[in-house]
Amino acid sequence: MKKTLIIKLGYTETLDNSLSLTTSLGDVLRTTFILHFFKDCQISWLVDEKAAILLENNPGIDRIFVYDPGTSLEQIKQEKFDVVVNFEKLPEICKLAEGLGAKKYFGFRLNSSDNSIVHYSEEGKKLVELSQDVNKRRKNRDCWQKILAQTLGKSWNGERYILGYKPKSEICYDIGFNWATSNKWTNKGWPKDYWEELERLLGNKYSISQQRDLNSLYKYIDWINSCRLIVTSDSLGLHLSLALGKRVIALFGPTSYREIYFYDYGSYLLPESPYNCLPCLRPVCDKKRKCIEYIYPQKVKERIEYEFGKHISAKKI
Prior knowledge:
Structural class: alpha/beta
Number of strands: 11
Helix content: 25-40%
Number of domains: 2
Distance between the termini: 51 Å
Shape: globular
Largest sheet: 6 strands, mixed
Strand content: 15-25%
CATH topology of the largest domain: Rossmann fold
CATH architecture of the largest domain: 3-Layer(aba) Sandwich
C-alpha cells in the first residue's frame, strides 16, 4: 500500500497569492475531497492544530500530524513516503516537502534558482498561475475541485468534502444566519443592519437562529446541523454547510462564486453593483460602500422563500 502525505495546514490559501500564518479552516475542509483519489493509500495529513478538528475521525485519513517544528516534523522526516501532496506555499513547508525524498510529488515547490513558487508537473501549472495572478483568477471559470484534481492528474467527477465529525444536534431551526467572517476578509461581511432587516422581513413565518458558538468548532458544526437552511457569506460556514448537506444561500461580493461547487445544495446571490471590479479578490475594500452591500435583504428574502417553496418544508418551533 502506497504511503501518501498530504500537506495542507491552512496557512496559505491554495488559490490565493498571500502568505499568512492565520489558519484558513475552510481551505483545509474543502481540500478533503482529494481523499477520494487516494482510497488505496495509507494517508497521513500534516495540518495546523486549529484545523485538526476538521480532520478528526475522517475515514480517509490514517494519521494526522499536527504541525510542530519539533516533534511532528522529526517524525515525518524519518519516514518514507511514496507520494507527497503539498498545497502550502510557505518556503519552509516547501523545503520540508522536497526533503522527504518521495517517489512522486504534486502541488507547490520552490524554484531552486530564485525561490519562487512553481509546480511539480505540467498538470499543476494552472494551480500555480491562479495562485499568483489575480487577473487570471478573476477570469477563471473552473471550480476549486476541478483545479486541484487536475493538479493531481485526476478528473473531478463530483467528489464531495469529507467531514469526520458527526454532529450531535437535531434539526430545530428553519434558518441559520451565518453572519461572521474572518478578520482577514472584512470585505465579505454583510452589514449587521441588513441581517436585522432580513429578519424583520421574514416576520414569524420561519424559526431563525443567529450564528453562535464561535469559540468551539464542535459546537459551531452542531449549530449548522440544527438548521434546515443557512444564509452565509463565503466562509467556513458555507463549506461546513455543504459538507453536512444543508441547503445554502451564499452571498458573494469580493470573492468568486465560480470557485465554489454547491453539490445541488443551494445557490448564490451577487451584488447589483455599479462596480466593474468584481470579483476583486481583495480582503479589504477601498470604496466607501462595499460591493456586498448591493445585495439587498429583499432579494435574500425572495431566495429564501424560493428555497422553502422548492426544496424545504418549514417546521415552526
